[in-house]
Amino acid sequence: MRKIVIFTVLMLSMSIAAVGQTVGFVNTETILAEVPEYVQAQQQLERLKQQYEIQLQNEVKIIENLFSRYQSQKSALGEMERQARENEIITKERAVKEKQQEIFGQEGVMAAKSKELMDPIMDVVQKAVDKVAQENGYLLILDLASLQGVIYKDAKVDLTPLVLKKLGL
């Protein structure tokens, strides 16, 4: 029985050692920063974001002006007119919030545009990582950009330069 336990422990330690040699990491932030298409896509998304933010800010200013005008005229208005103006302001505020959600929400215009622009780039990077893994016999490659809590990394298993080379960068 003791021989079986020793044999099992020995086999496990050998398999762990083998796996340890086939693990590497990449930093996709470093890789993507070198991909010109990614940089251009980021710039395009930033410009689009700024346009939408300006548009929303203008709509908010209109609402603020309506509210200021309402506040200054409130005492001179009848109950029906006050209620109508309050409803108008509330309706416009809701519309701006809905528009903001349509643009910047998880299913919004910006998310769709980001997916449209970034997915092809991410696919190319993923294919390069896959090739590096296959050509060099790696079983597991971790992405430092998405990992939290990495407290040690050995530069010998940093595959970022190989992926950049595979991408021709």
- What is the distance, rounded to the nearest whole angstrom, between the alpha carbons of the first and last residues? 56 Å
- Given helix and strand content, the structural type is mainly alpha
**Number of structurally distinct domains:** 1
Report strand %.
under 5%
Question: How much helix, percentage-wise, in residues?
Answer: over 70%
SSE order in H/E notation? HEHHHHEH
The outline comes out as rod-shaped
Cα radius of gyration in angstroms: 28 Å
Q: Mean pLDDT across all residues, rounded?
A: 86
Strand order of the largest sheet: 1-2
- Major beta-sheet overview: 2 strands, parallel
Mind telling me the CATH superfamily name? Skp domain
Q: So, CATH architecture?
A: 2-Layer Sandwich
Low-confidence stretches: none
Number of strands: 2
Overall CATH class: Alpha Beta
CATH topology: Protein Binding, DinI Protein, Chain A
**Number of distinct helices:** 6
